[in-house]
Amino acid sequence: MHLTLLILLTATSLYSQISGSVVDAETNQPIAGVNITSGNTGTAADNEGRFSIAVQEGDELTFSHIGYSIISTKAFAGMSVKLKAIILRSQEIVVRAGLKEESHQRSTNSVTVIDAASIKRADGSHFQDVMESIPNFNAAGGTSRPRYFQIRGIGERSHYFAEGPPNFSVGFVIDDIDLSGLGMAGLL
Predict the structure, then answer these.
(1) Most CB within 10 Å of its CB: which of 9, 92, 167, 181?
(2) Residues in Cβ contact with 58 at an 8 Å cutoff, skipping those fewer than 6 apart
(3) Do 112 and 54 touch, CB atoms closer than 8 A?
């Protein structure tokens, strides 16, 4: 009995819960979804930027999020971490229309582009909500079925020959795309 109690007390004292919050360095607003890791242990910040992780005080914690610089710091109770925003740059988006690749400026097809400013102004927390402003594009689905895209011309036979059948497979969902790191989105 005493040995069991001693083992339980030792095991619970090895790791304590370190709690804290993560905010934007400029705005002091909480950042949701920040990855917090220490060795093989990890967690993510909730919608209010709060987190709790089972590590010892003094362990090294790494905080990372798309669009922010990575910070490593020592763990302590009640910590508040400020992440600095960074500018993400990417190469030009290439539109694949049919069997060849070309830039959207040279394409003879209708191309709609949503820039970063439009994404930031859009209401909604999901990528589909942002894309709903594109002409000839519909996001369908409901509570019992995951959302999926309906794009102009997807039912035409020529589309099947050029691109193959549409992907309606389970798990083909882009609902989890993080909008903070997205600079531009487009639809052909």
Answers:
(1) 181
(2) 74, 75, 76
(3) no
pTM for the predicted model, two decimal places: 0.47
Q: Please count the other Cβ atoms lying within 10 Å of the Cβ belonging to residue 91.
A: 5
How many structural domains does the chain have? 2
Tokens 């999926």 found at: 148
Shared domain for 137 and 177, answered yes or no, is: yes
- Per the structure, the complete domain to which residue 149 belongs is given by 94-187
Q: Which residues pair with 19 in a beta bridge?
A: 52
pLDDT digits (tens, 9 = 90+) for 8-36: 444 445 568 999 999 999 999 999 999 99
pLDDT tens per residue across span 140-160: 666 666 666 666 655 554 445
Question: Helix H segments across 23-174?
Answer: 116-121, 127-131, 157-163
CATH label of the domain that carries residue 64 = 2.60.40.1120
Dist. CA 166–CA 185, nearest whole Å: 19
Q: What is the mean pLDDT of residues 89-109?
A: 62
